[in-house]
Specification:
Elements: E1 4-6, E2 9-13, H1 19-27, H2 37-45, E3 54-60, E4 63-72, E5 81-88, H3 97-110, E6 116-122, H4 125-133, E7 137-148, E8 163-167, H5 176-185, H6 201-209, E9 220-224, E10 227-236, E11 241-249, H7 258-272, E12 277-283, H8 287-296, E13 299-310
Helix pairs in contact: 1-2
Amino acid sequence: MTSLNSSSVTIRDFRPEDAVAVAAAHRAGREHLVLSAETLVWLNAQPSPEEHFRTFVAELDGRVVGAVRCGVVLGTTTTGVGYANGSVLPEYRRRGAATALLAAAERHLTGHGVTELHTWLDDEPASQAFATARGYRIGRTMQFAGRDLALPLPPAPVRPAGVEVRPAADWADDPYPVFLVEADAILDEPGSEVPMDALTYEDWLRNDWARPDRDAALSVVAVVDGRPAAFSMVQTDGADRYWSAFTACRREFRGRGLSKLAKLESLRLAAAAGYRHAYTSNDTTNGPMLAINAWLGYERCAGERKGIKQLERSAEQEI
């Protein structure tokens, strides 16, 4: 790739040696985000012929100060939708890095047929003004919440007859029954602008189950009469930070408290394993999960807003 220069900013492709700096930029000012350098290397090493995943890095005076991860949204019958999520170290903002990173992502994705680009923005005026000035419409709100795992967890509710909770590691040899929970639950996930109605087992295995930060021992599945019905999937940084990647329940099993059971057991295991900080996020219209998280002791710590931009079709090749 030919480097793109904007003022003193250089935009180039991610290299494995960038991982620590990119992770630091991603987390700067966002203690609720959990993303390891190891996972960044893994994400950029995966073949993605349909997703066209790519990470662009911003350099200022030879230092990596930010990055954007972008690709085509998979798992949906809706075509032409892409995503671009990035960040820049606070002390290097307003020097053109974020603008150049977004421009690189837009060029790349337009070259692969993307006409609608989604991004997440910090829920604060400066981020929203930045996006609005670059053609993004501000949409729905996500809420982040955290809890100290050193504090006591609520007592477990009475478990319904026929229900057990087991670590996701029990399905290491055949995770397909766990996949079926996610494929069903995401069909009506609150707030989603794009229907996730075409998730394939192969994509789920490659992009979710196989993530190096996915902790199968701390992820918990609620089983009803031997059949996975709900789960709480977890990612960790391998040190002290725990992230609830997705808590889901098959629609036919809802209303029985299975998601609550799975998430509580997962947090209990995480605390016992020495993890200290737990974080989660939800669409602000997702009343049931917000209620579960409040019962579990989570408290709101930050927010995000969705930004959506219509891209013009172009014959321009990738940069």
